Amino acid sequence: ARLGERLGWASQLIRGGLPRRRAAPLSPIARKLSREDAMIKGLHHNAYRCRDSEETRRFYEDFLGLPLATTLVISETKTGRTTQALHTFYRLDDGSYLAFFEVPDEPFEFKPQDDYDLHIALEVEYPDLERMFAEGPKHGVETRGISDHHFIHSIYFRDPNGYVVELTAKLPNHDEATDPTLNDARGKLDRWQAAKQQVGDAG
């Protein structure tokens, strides 16, 4: 049997089947991330391949409202190889960007991505979540939701390139639910690893 199938009981095991422990102290790296001297200051951009830059612009700028901030025409790589690529950047309200590469001469497998494999989550206010849930079908956009994740509510679109784009709104308990000193995040990860090890040993 596949490991994933044999791990069907793992979530129950993680929640209580193995001895629980206090939330693990933050690692030195995690502690540093909470200080002003953290090396990583934030996300500048994520970049993805796109089929067609204008089709992608219509989705991200016209439908989602992210302004096209800059466009780079790339004719040579840093190693000196000749190429033809268009690199577009769409600005989010926090100053970060979603970026795309259109590279017609380089093969890429565009396919409907599974949520687990690749999705892009963008934060919105709750009234906008509800509004966009209604707008998606009007624009012919594949739309799913509203999903309750107990600390966020989410809806899901599929962009022209096959990527899942999530709009998510925080619930009042969001900050508490994502506080690693309260939510046993490290303990859950450790129990998951231990469950995998048990399955591997048994197989």
Roughly how many Å apart are the termini?
Answer: 9 Å
- Portion of residues in helices? 25-40%
How many strand units?
8
Q: What is the succession of H and E elements?
A: HHHEHEEEEHEEEHH
- Proportion of beta-strand residues: 25-35%
Strand order of the largest sheet: 1-4-3-2
Number of helices: 7
Largest sheet: 4 strands, mixed
- Sheet/helix structural class: alpha/beta
The average pLDDT score comes to 86
Shape: globular
Gyration radius, in Å: 21 Å
> Unreliable segments (pLDDT under 50, ≥5 consecutive)?
18-23
Please provide a written account of the structure.
The model is unreliable at 18-23 (pLDDT under 50). Strand 2 and strand 3 (82-91) form a beta hairpin. It contains seven helices and eight strands; from the N terminus they run H-H-H-E-H-E-E-E-E-H-E-E-E-H-H. It is 32% helix and 27% strand. Helix 2 crosses helix 7 (185-202). By secondary structure, it is of the alpha/beta class. The chain is globular and about 50 Å long. The strands form two sheets. It has a four-stranded mixed beta sheet with strand order 1-4-3-2. The longest helix has 18 residues, at 185-202.
